[in-house]
Design goal:
The chain is mostly helical. It is built from nine helices and no strands.
Amino acid sequence: MNIAKVWFEEAKKEDFRYPYAYLGLVDLYTFLGIYNKQHKKPFSHYFEKAEQELAKVNRFSDRNMPAKIIERGNRYAKSSKKAIKVTLTNRYLLGHSHFIAGLHASNSRSYDIAIEEFKKAVEYVPEDSITFYHLYQLHMKVNKRSKAAFYYKKSTDLNSCIEKDAPPVPKKPTRKKKAAPTKKKKTDLTPKTDTDIDVKPETKPEKKKIGPFDDGIKF
């Protein structure tokens, strides 16, 4: 990286109107910015340097930037017949600008605006796992767990280090179903009739037969 920077700086000294030297530094600084961002290191100053180099391109170059130069490394650039300014088409800087806008909106608790800004940021830089992680956090704050799980997976797929530091999306607590109340048997209070009661038939005592020598007198 340091050698590349030295050569680009030397090219600027040889011809300060040479656009490729400035664009080379833009690519270098934006790469360092994205790299450090994914590793949770200071990165904003790299994007600031890239913006400074682009400003120098528009200031010192005596001709419009060819569209081929602008589209290099920028598959999101829109084609136009007019001259395209590099400052409006560099996808890394555009993504970074939306990222910063999303941070400001999030800090002011404008979560819906922050989500839209971060979505625009990942449209320009889909390899940015940190922005996906911010989307995960915001969707958790607005209680949209399904979308939060989607962005969490996107961020961890791009950067496995995030999974070590960030908790997974908690599942919704399942409500226990209440057991259906058991129906109590109704006691029948109606008086029972004779037909309902088992009545045993009366048994008459058997008559003792008296023999011819038995006169019924007990001794």
